[in-house]
């Protein structure tokens, strides 16, 4: 008799954080010196594998495990933070994460700051 074909378990398709995450709700703050909401962040990253795609959603992974999407206006900030973290680790220095980050909206613009 011929060989029977074995059914291999199917590998689950990877779903990026953007498919599972809620948008980070940013509070409006009165002045730049105030911090709207402070979160304990384990990582900042981007959904997907295409590193050249500037339109990929940015997200923060909180130390509690939940994931929050960042508003479009914070993508350049996220890219800078990810780049800096990679540079530090490549040089053998400690990662920026985990850390506390303050988020808010001032004068209509989203902002974030490592505390």
UniProtKB/TrEMBL annotation:
This is PilZ domain-containing protein. It comes from Streptacidiphilus cavernicola. It comes from the Bacteria.
């Amino acid at each position: 008799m011929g060989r029977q074909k074995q059914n291999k378990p199917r590998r689950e398709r990877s779903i990026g954080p953007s498919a599972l995450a809620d948008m980070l709700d940013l509070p409006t703050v009165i002045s730049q010196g105030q911090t709207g909401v402070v979160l304990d962040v384990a990582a900042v990253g981007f959904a997907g594998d295409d590193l050249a795609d500037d339109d990929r959603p940015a997200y923060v992974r909180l130390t509690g495990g939940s994931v929050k999407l960042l508003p479009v206006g914070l993508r350049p900030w996220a890219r800078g933070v990810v780049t800096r973290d990679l540079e530090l680790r490549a040089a053998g220095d400690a990662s920026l994460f985990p850390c506390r980050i303050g988020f808010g909206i001032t004068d209509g613009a989203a902002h974030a700051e490592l505390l």
